[in-house]
Structure formats: structure tokens, C-alpha cells
Amino acid sequence: MGSLEKMAAFKEEYAKNAAGLRRERIGDRRLSDLFDPESFVCLDSKVVSRPFSDAFDRPAVEGDGVTVGYGTIDGRLVFAASQDPEVYGGSMGRAHSMKIVKAIEMAVDSNAPFIALFSSGGARVEEGIIALEGLGAVLAALSDAKGAIPLLTAVLGPCPGGLAIAAAKSDFIFMVNKVSGLFVNSPSLSVISDAQSVSSEDIGTADMHKKTGLASFITETEAECFSKIRDLLGYIPVVADRGACAYRAAVSGDDPNRISETLDGMATESDIRPVSAAKVFAEISDNNKVLLIGNDFGSDMTVALGRMDGLVVGFIGNEAPRMSPQGIRKAAKFVRFCDNFMIPLVTFTNSEGFELGYKTEISGILEDASTLVEAFASADVPRVAILAGKAIGTAYLCMNSKMIGADTVFAWPTAEISILSADTAAHILYREKIAGSEDPIKAREQLVEEYKDQIADARVAASLGQVDELIAPSATRPRVISALDILLCAYPLTEA
User: Fold this and answer.
1) What pLDDT is attached to residue 25?
2) Among 97, 131, 192, 466, which has the highest number of CB atoms less than 10 A from its own CB?
3) Selecting from 3.40.630.30, 3.40.50.150, 3.30.300.30, 3.90.226.10, what CATH number does the domain 3-233 have?
4) How far apart (Å, rounded) are the C-alpha atoms in residues 135 and 122?
5) More confident residue, 48 or 324
6) What is the predicted pLDDT for the residue at 190?
7) Domain 246-415+467-495 belongs to what topology?
């Protein structure tokens, strides 16, 4: 074939692709739906698998069942890999896997996020150890990329074994109800070997991963999943050659000095109804908007992303009186993520301790709590703490206290900071005094109040330098923004 014929054939093929014939593939269509129109550039689109055995007579398919490349999402450079379940069930041969590795490595070199759209039957059986070599290379590439660039995975079909481990390496996992399947062993094998009454349909589902905490976001449709991915990317700062930079939007559209009488009302009624960290974060964020993360797991702890005067901020707060192992793990993972990508942290403390009971004691909560302390203590990002209600004992220490490196600590007048709750402390300290009084009930009530005023009051902590300022709850937003502005003077900052 001469040059004339080659150019004519190429133009014909290009015209077919432009007309959308190639986009009929599921993997390609998904990328087209996720990325900005006509922005995605394919890499290694002609790669095919090589035959390693005569056991299976499968013709080679261009692209080998996965589309990789780069493009823009809302104008931002992003790399991605999208598996096609219609090409040998999305199975991963060596060529398939090495395409994914190439995209991950290019994302790292470009300081760009990497998104995996997984839907696969697992490693390609006929390739044997060669297929495992490719899968191992994917795991190694993701390990190298972890913490260097944001890693996102959408599970859009089955995601078994080693590929499930690859998904678990992501910073955030997106799942679709009744579609996603994320499991280490085949559901049918799990049911056979498990004496519990469980159906194979229950293994690896989005509902199951509400309990494991792997599902950061769960949606009802693929379109909603892609919308949520775009929302999340809008909060993740750009990674520069010198490291991540705090990210401030050009215009926040909200007054940084806005006060909230709603917060004063919440604090006033806190003895009647607990203050919700999620509602506080929404109240102090720009335009009252936050993105809640993993809200179905460890619901005693809220983690979220939001903006304050345009600055992207990570929020962590107690949603229940006692902290669970699941909530602690969720918080520690989020602290690590925010620290990796220069997202300042704002915490909201209102906890009287850890969950009680034997199950808690054998759950690994001690290691979980130590991990949370380590995550906060080693974080280099600015950290602002808000003490709003009970800040008791080691639960208080774990929640970004001054002792483990919080840069600025504000306290509401309702904050109670002590080793034990006032009721428990009074019972220990004044037991004999209460027992010897004429009216033990009245004496106890009086001594509890004395403990609150003389030892647990936030003013006492402020006098000892553990609280920087007592503030009106309504002034929380301007105070936190002001503190972050001062703290960020020493950090690189980019603007949209």
C-alpha cells in the first residue's frame, strides 16, 4: 500500500471514529460522558494482547478491553482508564494492565489526578502468571502514586480480587447501587464457605461497603456517579512541582464576615438537642454548601469538603457523643488525604469519650485512635479547632487538640473541657462530701456545677493557653477564616 492509499485509509478510519462508531464501546462512552466534550485523548488505542497459550482461541481486539488517556474535566487535566466489560468480560491481560500502568505513571509525571473506571472479570485466565505480572504492576504503580496525586475509582460493574485491592488503594471510591460489585473472592465461593445465611447478591454491593467504609460515595445511576466525581474534583487542589498548594477560588460569592445567629441558637439549645457537626460546617461554609464524604460509615464522625472565603477546607467533626472505631478510621484517612494535598483542616469537637463495651475494646480502637493522633500530629497543613460542647479526656486529645499540634483553638461558651465529665468527676472527687450531706441529691447537683465552673469551663483552658479565644458561636465563620488567612501566609497558595 502506497502513501496515497495509507492516507485514504487513515482518513476513512478517522471519520468513522469521529462519527461515533468507536464510542459505541462502553469504556469509551463512559469517558465521553465524564470528560469535557471532545477533550479526551486516547493512548495506546491499537495495543492488542499477545497469545501466550493455545488453550483459548480468542482473536485480538484493538485496545485490549481498556481505554486509557487524558483530557479535561471542567478544564482541569485528568488521566483515566476505563475498562470495557464487553471485551472478554473486561478481563485483565498483561497488555491491558500495562496500559493502565502507563496512564498512572503519566498522571504522576503531570501532577494530575487519575481516575479508574473499573468493570472487570479479573485477571485473564489463559495468560496465567503473565496476567498476574500485569496486575501486580498496576498495584505497584498505584502504590507509588498514592499521596502524590489524587486517586479516584468508580466501580461500574464487577471488581474482583487483585483489582478490588487496586480500587481500595484509591483516596475515594464511587459505587452505584445494584451495579457495583467490589469483592476479594467470588460471591458464589464466599456463600459456599460461609455458614452465615447470606446470598451471593449481598457480597460486594454498595450496601455492604457502607459497612466496610470503602464506599466514599454511593449513587443510584452512572450519570449521578460522574456528576459526583466532577463535584469532588472541584474541591481537590492542583498539585504543583513543588508540592500541593492550598486552593482558593477566585470569587467565593459569600461574605467572609458573615455571622450566623443560627449557631447561637444551636449552642443555646445544646443541652436539649445535640449540635450537629454537619450543620455547623454547612453554616460556616461559603453559600452553606459542603460535600459530605462516606456519610454512611462511622456516622458518629462527619468528614466533608467545603470552602471558606473561596479556600478549600477539610472538615472533621463529632456527630455523636461517643466516638466509634469506624468513625475514627474515617477521620484518620481523611486527615492523611488533606495533608497530602494541602487542604487546611477545621475540626469541631463535641465528644465525651469512646463507645463503651467489650466489642469496642476488641475492635482495635486503641490502634485506630493512635493512628488518628499520629495523622493529626504529623500533618503539616494549617489546623483550626472549634470546641463546642464536651471535650472530654482522650477523645478530646485525639480530636486535633492544642496538645497534638492544632494551630488555633476556638471555644464556644458551651464548651466543657476536662479529664472526665462533670458528673463522673464530681462522683469521684466529692463522694464522701455528697454522702455526708443532709440532701445528697442537691449537694451532688451543686458540686457538679462547681466542677463545671471551676475546672471544666472553657475559660480555665483559655487561662492555661489551651484555648486561644472564646468566641460567640455566631462569629465562628469570620474567626476561622481570619485564622486560616494568617496561618496560610507561610504556605504556597494558588487561585482559580
Assistant:
1) 83
2) 97
3) 3.90.226.10
4) 9
5) 324
6) 67
7) 2-enoyl-CoA Hydratase; Chain A, domain 1 (3.90.226)
